[in-house]
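Try this one yourself first.
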């Protein structure tokens, strides 16, 4: 239960910083304070944001319950997590966060925010390649190698 509370606290800090604060500064910088009206782009953008955040939260819950840890690199899961969203793709949390950012860009019709989302995804890709995957290989060994062979990094593998 403690892992769940830690995971939710870290997720709230991450979401607050990278999905709320920074995008808010970007929108303010380009002069977007609020949307002019609610139209199809805003409704679709909101749906995309909710789906992205739901995926990210599902990942936090999976890390806490299955992995007995959190998504934070300084408080990682104690067990390799290959269940929940991780059954289909190796980095669903980053996909969820990036999706939420792209949904916000659509909601606000902001190219600057879309650019931030793409930079966010590029940085997370580099983080995965340069830190996460080598670290997980060292910590979980053959079980992680087996996972690498069966589940793709960014494109979901749809299997039952």
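Now uncover the answer:
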């Amino acid at each position: 239960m403690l892992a769940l509370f830690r995971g939710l606290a870290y997720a709230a800090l991450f979401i607050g910083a990278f999905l709320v604060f920074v995008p808010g500064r970007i929108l303010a910088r380009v002069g977007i304070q609020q949307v002019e009206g609610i139209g199809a782009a805003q409704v679709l953008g909101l749906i995309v944001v909710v789906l992205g955040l739901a995926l990210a939260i599902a990942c936090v819950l999976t890390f806490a319950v299955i992995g007995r840890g959190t998504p934070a690199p300084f408080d990682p899961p104690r067990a390799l997590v290959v269940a929940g969203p991780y059954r289909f793709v190796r980095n669903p949390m980053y996909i969820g966060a990036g999706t939420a950012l792209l949904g916000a860009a659509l909601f606000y019709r902001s190219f600057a925010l879309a650019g931030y989302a793409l930079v966010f995804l590029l940085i997370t890709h580099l983080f995965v390649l340069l830190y996460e995957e080598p670290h997980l290989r060292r910590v979980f060994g053959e079980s992680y190698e087996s996972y690498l062979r069966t589940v793709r990094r960014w494109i979901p593998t749809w299997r039952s």
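Discussion: The helical segments are 2-29, 40-65, 92-108, 111-150. The chain has a mean pLDDT of 90.
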